[in-house]
Amino acid sequence: MAEFFHMGGYAAFVWPSYGLAALVFIGVIWQSLADLRAQKRLVDKLETRRRNRKPEDGA
Amino acid sequence: MGRAIAALIARDLRLAVRAGGGGGMAVFFFLITVSVVAVGVGPNLSLLAQIAPGILWVALLLSSLLTLERLFQADLEDGTLDLLAMGPLPLEAIAAAKAFSHWLTTGLPLLVAAPLLGLLLNLPVNVFPPLILSMAIGTPALSFLGAIGAALTVGVRRGGLLASLLVVPFYVPVLIFGVGAADEAISGAPPGVMLQALSLLGAVTLASLVIGPVAAAAGLRAALK
Amino acid sequence: MLTASQRLQAFANPTRFMALSGRLVAPLGVLTAAVMAVGLYFALFASPPDYQQGETVRIMYIHVPSAWLSLFVYSVMAVASGVALVFRHPIADVCAKAAAPIGAAFTFLALVTGSLWGEPMWGTWWVWDARLTSVLILFFIYLGYMALRATIDDPHAATRPAAVLALVGFVNVPIIHYSVNWWNTLHQPASVFRIDGPTVASSMLVPLMTLAVGFTLFFVVMLLVRMRAEVLRRRVRAMSLRRAEG
Q1: Helices (H), B19-44
Q2: Out of B88, B110, C50, C134, which could bridge C57 as a Cys pair, Cβ 3.0 to 4.6 Å?
Q3: Is residue C246 part of a domain?
């Protein structure tokens, strides 16, 4: 196991590569999902407000 | 149509002269950049001679960026561009004419100043001809590619800075082949490689003469709507 | 002015897109995770170290797919931009905008992993190698595209300039690559490094290809998510503008 983490002496280069890849992937996922959720919330808010404001329009 | 283009170019030249000339500012910037780089690198003349073509080309490239912002902006703001777009000339021709005037008022003065700055950098005598030749061939590409960035950012806040950021990556081939021609002369290589660099630079310039006006016109159309 | 049918079409397309993409995201996400897990297993455990590069070959399993994706995503962006420019298809514009940050992320990853591989192999963090240099310039083009998008608030006003920039970049990337290659062979001392030395062993091919597929799937899923967010953002914008008008 220690040998695996040692990476033949190249641990300082191999693990940062995978770590950075993980960070970038998680970053993209997190930012995209957070944005989607925020936009969904905005749409919901605007739609309920519109429904509440003019029920007499019937539209 | 030819007369209309000539009239447009003549108008731009008159405006540039009357407004003190963006070209003068560009040349001043060119001079200052080269001096500052020389001070930063140090007074070692043999080192300066070696990197002079690179310094001169980079400073030239940065100087030509300076005047990009005004390429279309003034004409958009005062409505001239709308009038021109309604006139007989296609927008592509208008963009080409304006890019050509930009070269006349910026590229050409820089080209004239370059040999003097070469002296400051201890550029070897035999490198002057290929360097000036490469600049003569390459500077039109800077104006025509620059027109794309200017057109895309014409209605944008802080458009000049953004135009520079967009355009510089597209300047890379011009820089490489331009410096390449002069570098060959410095290292004393046979003229074959130099001719190759110059002809490749010519190809890039020819391509930019086509791509530039077409893309710039497409960008202007969006701004005019 | 838009005609009524055009307006309907512009509205219908995003709606259909939202319905379809909503059904696709979750299953594709699961598939992506599975392929990535298999790829990582092969990349880290089930493949031998290279006889020349040793364990550093494992960096290639991240680096090479990232570099491929950086170009692939740009191609997607360019095609979408062309469609947006010619056919005025709103979803194509949304697609180009949503793809750019993902492409920039892959390009960044390719650059940094290339650097992390270069230090033990070439003895330096950065080489003005033809590939690294042209990938760096591609990264700048991505950033420029994103900056242009960020400075124009109205998404409809941004469509044309952004599409033109993406297409000009698409024409230019091969020219830039060629020029950098030419420059590189001129300046690089031949002794530093030869990339065409070892041929790719089949033990390397399995993790490489699996992760390339995983990265592509990841791009597709994230593209869909980002496109959904962008469609909603435009809807929010249209709704608030309508409300502001009264």
Answers
A1: 22-41
A2: C50
A3: no
Which of C102 and A14 is assigned the larger pLDDT?
Answer: C102
CA distance A2 to C49: 16
Residue C245 lies in a domain: no
Partner-chain residue, chosen from C143, C151, C179, that has the shortest CB–CB distance to B176:
C179
Residues C7-36: tens digit of each pLDDT = 545 555 788 888 888 899 999 999 999 999
- Whether the CB-CB separation of B221 and C88 falls below 8 Å is answered with no
| Domain region containing C33 | 26-188+208-238
In a domain, C13, yes or no: no
State the total domains in chain C. Answer: 1
Q: What confidence score (pLDDT) does residue C34 get? A: 95
Query: CB–CB of C151 and B158 under 8 A?
Result: yes
Whether the predicted pLDDT of A59 surpasses 60: no
Is residue C224 situated within a structural domain? yes
Whether B169 and C140 lie within 8 Å, measured CB to CB: yes
Query: Would you call A21 and C232 a contact, using CB atoms and an 8 Å cutoff?
Result: no
Mutation for C interface: A32, A49, A53, most C CBs within 10 A: A32
Amino acid at C226: R
From the list B59, B195, B203, the residue with the least C-alpha distance to B123 is B59
What ipTM was predicted for this assembly?
0.88
B165 CB neighbours in chain C (<8 A) are 140, 143-144, 147
The residue written with tokens 């016109």 in the block is B217
